[in-house]
Amino acid sequence: MCKHALGAQPGYRRYSTGHAAMTPTPKPHRRLTLLGLAAIGGAGVCGCSPAASAPAKTAAAGKARPDLYSCEGCQAVLERDPATLPARLRLAEAGQPGERMVLTGRVLTVDGAPAPGVVIYAHHTNADGYYADGTPETEWSRRHGRLRGWVKTGADGRYGFDTIKPAPYPDRTMPAHVHLFIQEAGRPPYYIDDVVFAGEFKVDDAYRAKQELRGGGGIVTLTRDGAGVWQARRDIRLERRPS
């Protein structure tokens, strides 16, 4: 659940919420949350997660998070015009090495109604655990690597990314994860808990205890469909607006 993790890798920083930095090179990346920051140098391994020793910052029931919009890397959400975004995106091209995976879900308001028009930005490592093959356009296109993209929820609040299953960082500091950021119309973007996979490396009781539960829990159960494609569902509950 790292959106700013950089500390574990050269050039990355950690955040208190559990999101890892992103770049397949020896530089760390953005969200550093309580779940474990990790950035990986070399080819672009860097993610964000909270430091293992930091206490998770979960919001009290019914309360807004005063630090909701404190977020390194959220600028990446703004790199595309929301009017041009689809509800479902092929994030990884057909020839991208790795096991195919589809991440879908529904975004809901605080009251549980479908939330249309919400932008979701995702990025993750490749099958070797690196944020590789970034492009030079922006800081985030370099650090987050090729496997990144944007969608906007439809009238039913649904979204989807067709991609590959990410691998853990080579330094094994964090579980495999997908970073997610969201932006509601008229509001700043913010990160939510990373998508991680139940029963896999480092998704244990210690990890569960450090979840921030931003946007709801990010631990999902993977299943394979008839074609052998991994299916993951991550529903998102929008955060309350801080005063």
TrEMBL record:
Which parts of the sequence belong to the Intradiol ring-cleavage dioxygenases domain?
Answer: 90-199
Q: Which is a Pfam family this sequence falls into?
A: Dioxygenase_C
User: What does the UniProt keyword field contain?
Assistant: Dioxygenase, Oxidoreductase
User: Which GO terms label this protein's molecular function in UniProt?
Assistant: ferric iron binding; oxidoreductase activity, acting on single donors with incorporation of molecular oxygen, incorporation of two atoms of oxygen
SUPFAM superfamilies documented for this protein: Aromatic compound dioxygenase
InterPro entries xrefs: Intradiol_dOase_C, Intradiol_dOase_core, Intradiol_RC_Dioxygenase
Q: What is the top-level taxon of the source organism?
A: Bacteria
Q: Which family does it belong to?
A: Belongs to the intradiol ring-cleavage dioxygenase family.
Report what the protein is called: Intradiol ring-cleavage dioxygenase
